[in-house]
Design goal:
Aminopeptidase, 8-stranded mixed β-sheet, alpha+beta
Length: 188
Amino acid sequence: MYIKVDSVALLNDFNQIWMECWLEKGYGLENEDLPTDRYLIIDSAKQKVGTIEFKPYTLDPNNNINIVYPFYQIESIIDKPNSVVEIDKVAILKQFRGKNLDRLLSLFVNYSEYHDISYCVVLLERVFYKALKHVYKIPLESVSEKIYYKGDYVIPAIIYPKEIYQNKEKYDWLVASQYDDKRKLIFN
């Protein structure tokens, strides 16, 4: 289950969760005031346990993620910038990690399908990168060696969600998406 952040109260919950997780890992905090789609991950007991943020991607070299790594120079990104999204503020509270990652990843896939996203640019913590690649079999590629950023090494990567949502039967962890009668995505 997921909740779109659309109020000050939910934004406070969102910020509390990702900040707690990032401080636990020793990461530097950043708070931008850009238009984004933010979601809270809700567990089976209806507790708010995690966060994910989807940012519109821009080819601007001064875009924060492009300063860390020049994604704007990658041919597939240049060719289809409107089908790219940046993923940020991925966090699950320590005591709720494990099964809730399925919920978070399903939200990422469902969001990408709903918005016809082909590429996601992201800076991934190394252990999380390996889990996505080897355990969840997420189609992704590292575009650089690890880079030190805000307190830890990260791997600049591109994730290919279209390969997942066009082949859902291959991903047994995926929670199906539902749409209402106006084709608005309903997140379970």
